[in-house]
Amino acid sequence: MNAPLVSVIVPMYKTEPFIEECAVSLTKQTLRDIEIIFVNDGSPDQSGRIAEQFAAEDTRIRVIHKENGGLSSARNAGIKAARGRYIGFADGDDYVAETMFERLYEEAEKNRLDIAGCGYYKETPSKERTYMPPSLPPGRVFTAAEMTALLTRAHEHRFIWYVWRYIYRREALQGLLFHEDIRFAEDSPFNLAAFRQASRVKVIDEGLYVYRENPQSLTETPFKPHLDDELQKQYEAKMAFYEANGLTDACRDDIDTYLCKHQIPMLIANACAAPKPSHQITAHIGRILTYDMVKTAVRSTPCRHKQLLAGERVVLGLCKMRLPLLLHAFFERKTKEKGSAEGA
Asked: Which residues cross the membrane (predicted)?
């Protein structure tokens, strides 16, 4: 049996309300010579059974059932089973345009690409869509040397986010897998390595993937008890990559600015959302300020950095002065203002 042109890997965990629409969008692909690998990551609902029903009707579909190990573990199981010339991804609660994999495959073959990518749509529960263009300039081929230069601003340009908007030539991945100990924002460490290994990359300005904003996230607690550990593990994986590739100095400003703009505020906001007494929240913020990655980023990033907005500069300034009580008050005020605006 000839290898399929593209293997599409679909992890599933609690995706029962959405997996049918995802599966239909994949079985209707205009590129017929694909394989679809559903990975049931120990989901307690009927996701696995629904995927098996599709597999019974379409020989291109395979279903892998495994114990729950997280998104990275599920994707790795799919990568190891994939036989396609290229590998793509879709999340089980999203869906894709019928032409997605034909368009990306055509671009990859025509331009001898290791990675081909596209734009995507964010879709609300009411089906309102917002187009998110590709994070790299579309329409041109980037060489390995150009990609190495771009990696020094990878967080600024955001092209390492979201593996599902790309296809990857399987041979070019050279055995690359996801970090299974990272369970938050798993895509960026994987993409750092994938883009580093790629010889030729191109993206097209077409919205071919639909990222569905999960309505359940509005009712779930905003506090993530393991976020501190997860972000530190992600940071350590990225720094290990930079060191192994001689990019530490070149990428220092990019990752420090990203921490100050996104992840440090995320950590503090998460601490403020904890169901704990106020003094314990302030103490948690104080601990955040002692993390090595936080201390390095805060020390290295000027408050007037061009990428920082006004509120982000205030947060950075309070971090520099090590004032957890004022940081707590600042984020509490922001939360109240947001609640008032939503209730207006």
From this structure: none
Pairing type for strands 115-123 and 61-66 reads: unpaired
The total of structural domains in the chain comes to: 2
Instruction: Decide: residue 21, CB within 10 A, 0-12 exposed, 13-18 middle, 19+ buried.
Output: middle
The Cβ-side half-sphere exposure at 74, using a 13 Å CA radius, reads 30
> For residue 48, which of 23, 72, 73 has the smallest C-alpha distance?
23
Start-end of H helices in 123-178:
144-151, 154-157, 170-173
Q: Is the pTM of this model over 0.85?
A: yes
Are residue 206 and residue 296 in the same domain, yes or no? no
Distance CA 267, CA 246 (A): 29
What tokens were used for 314?
């205030």
Which residues face 62 on adjacent strands? 37
pLDDT in tens, 26-80: 999 999 999 999 999 999 999 999 999 999 999 999 999 999 999 999 999 999 9
Q: Which amino acid, 176?
A: L
Q: How far is 315 from 258, CA to CA, in rounded Å? A: 13
Residue 1 within any structural domain of the chain: no
Alpha-carbon distance of 47 to 69, in angstroms, equals 16
> Which of the four pLDDT bands, split at 50, 70 and 90, describes residue 20?
very high
Same domain, 37 and 85: yes
Print the domain residue range for 200.
6-217
Give residue-wise pLDDT tens across range 200-236: 999 999 999 999 987 554 334 578 999 999 999 999 9
- 203: Cβ–Cβ under 8 A, 6 or more apart, which residues? 116, 117, 118, 119, 134, 135, 136, 137, 138, 159
Greatest CA separation for the chain = 65
- Helices marked H in the chain — which ranges? 19-27, 47-57, 71-81, 100-111, 144-151, 154-157, 170-173, 187-197, 227-244, 248-258, 264-272, 278-288, 292-300, 310-320, 324-343
Over 60: is that where the pLDDT of 242 sits?
Answer: yes
